[in-house]
Amino acid sequence: MLLKKANLQSVLMQNIRIHFKLLIFFFVPVLLQAQDSQTHDFIVSAQGHTGYIIAHHSNMSQLIKGHLFGGELNYVFRTDGSKPWQQIHKYPEIGMCVLHMDLANPRQLGTLEALYPYTNIRLNKLNKKTSVNLRLGLGLGYITKPFDRLTNHQNNAIGSHLNGFVNLRLNIARMLSKSWRLDAGVGLSHASNGAITTPNLGLNMASINVGIGYVFGNKSLELKKDSIAKAKKEWHPSIIAVAGIKEMMPPGTQRYMAYGLMVNFYHNSNYKNKVGGGLEVSYNNSLKKLLGDDSLSFSNSNLLRAGIKFCYSFNMHRVSLPIDFGVYFYDNRNYDGRFFHRIGIRYMVTKHIIANVTLITHWAVADYFEWGLGYQF
Questions:
Q1: Given the DSSP bridges, would you call strands 235-247 and 68-78 parallel, antiparallel or unpaired?
Q2: What angle do CA 26, 235, 318 make, to 5 degrees?
Q3: What is the pTM of this model?
């Protein structure tokens, strides 16, 4: 009994260390980007939420007991155009959010607590009173009632307390005066751990929000505007090495390492967008368990995959948000299908060095988080 308890504590500490690295990789790039702004103007806002959990798998419908309710606090930097990238993106806001959400199932899900940085990207023309924004946020979420084989085996959606958290929101901000602002929006949020711990169906949440904010500092923000040279339309090849950890079902079994190497070819169409393609190869040790279940002979070549992909990246100064759509041209066993996808965040540490945190998926099924470094030529 004591040995089992020690093993559980060891696994818990391993998860904490893994997710602390996730915290560093997600938060540092955005906070550094915010620090790059020279304005001391900011907003503090409070917003309320209501919504529901989307049952994206039929076998998780028993977890949905009612509507979500919650609230959030935001600390928001307002950029003033002192850097060229701020003007290019129509003076975006960069913020930090603390979110509390009651998941309407206190026994099996509990509550969600999240901490994440985000950016508000303006979609409409520059207007001092009203802005329509696309809010993109990446951070950490804490689920108070994850799966437990003894006390909470009904929770087949989330297997760990700590999870990655993604928020995508369309919101409108309306200045009521020089000091007060009304915020309202509709959004989607996702929490999962990328199969570091199973089960990992993840939680998808849709919600609407409304709230009010107060401006501190410079209430009459002067926006700078300079002539900016057109972006050079050129190719940027890069190579990125990644590694990840994946646990297979049933929960509490062995974890496996996965490795990958990707070569990307991006073409700058403008300052904001890059499109291109690439090749990649991966070696996934978790396939050993599947092979052990249905194969009498084992070959390392069955753990190899190679694919070709279409790449898109949204760029904001040093931070980029990549999206990949790919197909495997080499996959002996084809357990996950021929198609793969990728979303995540990358940060240009220097002109050439890339820090990478991405999630590889097969359609709606998350495979594992990829942690890595790369070089852009």
A1: unpaired
A2: 25
A3: 0.82
Strand partners for 90: none
Q: Where are the beta strands (DSSP E) in 287-334?
A: 304-316, 319-330
CA dist., res. 62 & res. 60, Å (int): 5
CB of 347 within 8 A of CB of 364? no
Q: For 184, left (φ over 0), alpha (ψ -120 to 50), or beta?
A: beta
Asked whether 133 and 123 are in contact (CB, 8 A), the reply is yes
| Closest CA relative to residue 238, chosen from 144, 347, 147 | 347
Does the CA dihedral 358-375-255-16 come out positive or negative? negative
Residue pair 259/282 in contact (Cβ under 8 Å)? The answer is yes
* pLDDT tens column, 91-116: 999 999 999 999 999 999 999 999 99
Domains of the chain plus CATH, in order, are 19-216 (2.40.160.20), 235-376 (2.40.160)
Q: Are 209 and 72 in contact (CB under 8 A)?
A: yes
DSSP helix/strand/coil, 89: coil
pLDDT tier at 236, thresholds 50, 70, 90: very high
Pull the structure tokens for residue 377.
Answer: 């030529």
Q: Are 296 and 333 in contact (CB under 8 A)?
A: no
Residue 296's CB is within 10 A of a number of other CB atoms, namely 6
CB 261 within 8 A of CB 305: no
- What number of CA atoms fall less than 13 Å from residue 143's CA on the CB side? 28
Could you report how far apart the first and last alpha carbons of the chain are, in Å? 54
Tell me if 93 sits within 8 A of 121, measured CB to CB.
Answer: no
